[in-house]
Amino acid sequence: MDNWLPTLIVATPEQGFDLAFKLSRMAVKKAQPSEDVREKVRKDYEDDAESLIAISQVVAINFQTIAAANGYWR
Amino acid sequence: MDNWLPTLIVATPEQGFDLAFKLSRMAVKKAQPSEDVREKVRKDYEDDAESLIAISQVVAINFQTIAAANGYWR
Amino acid sequence: MDNWLPTLIVATPEQGFDLAFKLSRMAVKKAQPSEDVREKVRKDYEDDAESLIAISQVVAINFQTIAAANGYWR
Amino acid sequence: MDNWLPTLIVATPEQGFDLAFKLSRMAVKKAQPSEDVREKVRKDYEDDAESLIAISQVVAINFQTIAAANGYWR
Amino acid sequence: MDNWLPTLIVATPEQGFDLAFKLSRMAVKKAQPSEDVREKVRKDYEDDAESLIAISQVVAINFQTIAAANGYWR
Amino acid sequence: MDNWLPTLIVATPEQGFDLAFKLSRMAVKKAQPSEDVREKVRKDYEDDAESLIAISQVVAINFQTIAAANGYWR
């Protein structure tokens, strides 16, 4: 997990959205380091409406941070 | 999914709200790339009060970002 | 749904709160366009504590946006 | 419900917290106008840990707005 | 409950975190004034993962407010 | 728990993310001081999709605070 987040500054909104997604995943990874368990958990959420909406919410919160960091790419 | 988010800047609040909605959907799409599975999931949430309110919450968070990016269209 | 959000600027905090409520509803409307289904869903949430609190949360998030847009009506 | 929110500006943090609480309640009131139904719903949440925590979350979001409006009473 | 929140300004981040915790509790206290009921509710959440995470979320939101009020103790 | 949060200022985004994680844990620790109970609770959430996503959300909120405190490491 070393040096996975050198900066919040990215060139485009799309890259910012990808980074927001990455932050969301990394928090899960830190809470549950086992790849095997996470793979099993993925099977639970990947066809569950409530979980997918919850993931979208976490990404939205992280995207607020990334967008602000980048001056909204104005 | 290429180049789906060239900018956060849009002309009107209404377009901003539509973009907030799009961001919310794209996060789900990234978490669950299969169109078929997402279609099945849609059947679960589309008549579920809790899910619809949760979607509205994600859109609200993304709209905060878009509105700030656009100086609130003042 | 055309031109339902011409501006975020309103004269008073109370009108701002009403607009926050409207934004919350519009996201549900976009996710579930059928008036009939929404009416049925309303029956589920209107006497459910958890749903009513969740609605209040969405309104609170949207009110943050509207209040910031209006310089908090200071 | 007329003129229930003339201003977001209050003299002290404590009054601001009370106003945040009021905003949270008013959204519920707008979503469920019947006093009788709300009274019944209150019985569901008032001894439910999850609901009480959720209420605290809505108040926290509204308090962010009120505190920002008042320059954090600095 | 009188004069429990004279200011949002505290000397250190740690005191700020304690205050964020206090705000979270006070909202519960206002929603459920009975000490006895709150004590009973505490038994429900104190060994429940979902509730403890939800509490942590409310504290995080309140800590955003307190940290901003204090200029992040920079 | 003494002096666990001397500052919000850290050198890199990665350290900021770690601190956001620490804040999220500390709130749980304050709500449930018993190490034994927390260990038992960990067993409940560590393979539960909904809980892991909820943890990621709390970290995202705390990361907003830390990132703002550090001027987004620009």
Can you walk me through this structure?
6 copies of one chain form a homohexamer. Chain A is mostly helical. Chain A has a domain at 34-74. Helices cover 69% and strands 0% of the residues of chain A. The first copy, chain A, has helices at residues 13-31, 35-45, 49-69. In chain A, helix 1 crosses helix 3. The E-F interface holds E 12-14, 17, 21, 45-50, 52-57, 59-61, 63-64, 67-68, 72-74 and F 3-9, 23-28, 30-32, 37, 40-42, 44-45, 48, 50-51, 54-55, 57-58, 61-62, 64-65, 68-69. Chains A, B, C, D, E, F: It comes from Sphingomonas horti. Chains A, B, C, D, E, F: This is Peroxidase. Chains A, B, C, D, E, F: Keywords: Oxidoreductase, Peroxidase. Chains A, B, C, D, E, F: GO terms for molecular function: peroxidase activity. Chains A, B, C, D, E, F: InterPro entries: Hexamer_Tyr-coord_heme_pr_HTHP, HTHP_sf.
Helix-strand blueprint:
The structure is a homohexamer of 74-residue chains.
Chain A: H1 13-31, H2 35-45, H3 49-69
Helix pairs in contact in A: 1-3
In short:
Six copies of one chain form a homohexamer. The first copy, chain A, has 74 residues and is mainly alpha-helical. Chain A has helices spanning 13-31, 35-45, 49-69.
Give me some keywords for this one.
peroxidase activity (chains A, B, C, D, E, F); mainly alpha
Whole-number radius of gyration of chain A?
14 Å
The rounded distance between the terminal residues' Cα atoms of chain A is 32 Å
One letter per element, helices H and strands E, the order of chain A comes to HHH
Greatest interface by residues involved = A-B, 27 and 35 residues
GO molecular function, one term (chains A, B, C, D, E, F): peroxidase activity
Pfam family, one (chains A, B, C, D, E, F): HTHP
Keywords (chains A, B, C, D, E, F): Oxidoreductase, Peroxidase
InterPro entries (chains A, B, C, D, E, F): Hexamer_Tyr-coord_heme_pr_HTHP (IPR021111), HTHP_sf (IPR038125)
